[in-house]
Write a structure and sequence with these properties.
Elements (H helix, E strand, L loop, with lengths): L4 E6 L1 H19 L4 E7 L3 H8 L6 E9 L12 E2 L11 E9 L3 H12 L4 E10 L11 E6 L4 E2 L15 E4 L1 H5 L1
Parallel strand pairs: 2-3, 2-5, 5-6, 6-7
Antiparallel strand pairs: 1-9, 3-4, 8-9
The chain binds guanosine-5'-monophosphate (5GP) and magnesium ion (2 copies).
Length: 179
């Protein structure tokens, strides 16, 4: 285990097995439809790479660069689109993937943008969802794991752009965050 990690929450094997189950549900829903997987940088990169190899459907693949945390620990509530890349989504069924659903504002804002760009339908998929009430924002269509309301890193998720390469999801030691 990495020396900055206090505790492993979800280990590699558990993640791998859960992705197979998610993929089966996604295949059933998207089969026969023109599919585009749209993953949010950078956090969803490990997740999407591992997930889509279990989805043997014809699909296009896009990466979108958005930011809501601006390097800190809390969502700013404002989603910034960091590039002007605009894939043509007319008539397409989008699978929108992110690492984690916290406030849900990121997925809500990006879903709206993709529909504005002509997407026929947008289904949302997250590796993790925090166990918090979301009154106005909807849950994801596909959720890997529901976790407690703690800040996590690993398997794509960062703290100050570090720890994304850890193969598991874990909690940082307190002294790493305060220093
Ligand atoms: P939301 O807009 O749902 O509040 O935030 C979603 C984004 O915030 C995620 O894509 C992720 O970048 C970041 N985020 C939310 N919770 C965590 C967390 O516990 N750890 C890390 N590393 N990022 C998080
Ligand atoms: Mg993110
Ligand atoms: Mg981040």
């Amino acid at each position: 285990m990495h020396e900055d990690i206090e505790k492993v929450l979800i280990d590699e094997d558990v993640i791998r097995r859960r992705l197979v189950v998610l993929a089966e549900r996604i295949i059933a829903d998207f089969e026969g439809k023109p599919m585009v997987a749209v993953a949010l940088l950078k956090g969803a990169v490990l997740f999407v790479a591992d997930l889509i190899r279990h989805i043997p459907l014809p699909m296009e693949f896009e990466l979108l660069n958005v930011s809501s945390y601006h390097g800190g620990l809390k969502s700013s509530g404002e989603v910034l689109f960091l590039d002007n890349h605009q894939p043509d989504l007319h008539g397409k069924h989008v699978l929108l993937l992110d690492d984690i659903l916290d406030t849900g504002l990121t997925m809500e804002a990006v879903t709206k943008k993709l529909k504005d760009q002509g997407a026929e339908d947008v289904k949302t998929c997250v590796l993790l969802a925090k166990d918090i009430p979301r009154d106005t924002v909807k849950e994801a269509d596909y959720t890997g794991f529901v976790i407690a309301n703690e800040f996590v890193v690993g398997y794509g998720l960062d703290y100050q752009d570090r720890y994304r390469n850890l193969p598991y999801v874990g909690i940082l030691k307190e002294e790493v965050i305060s220093s």
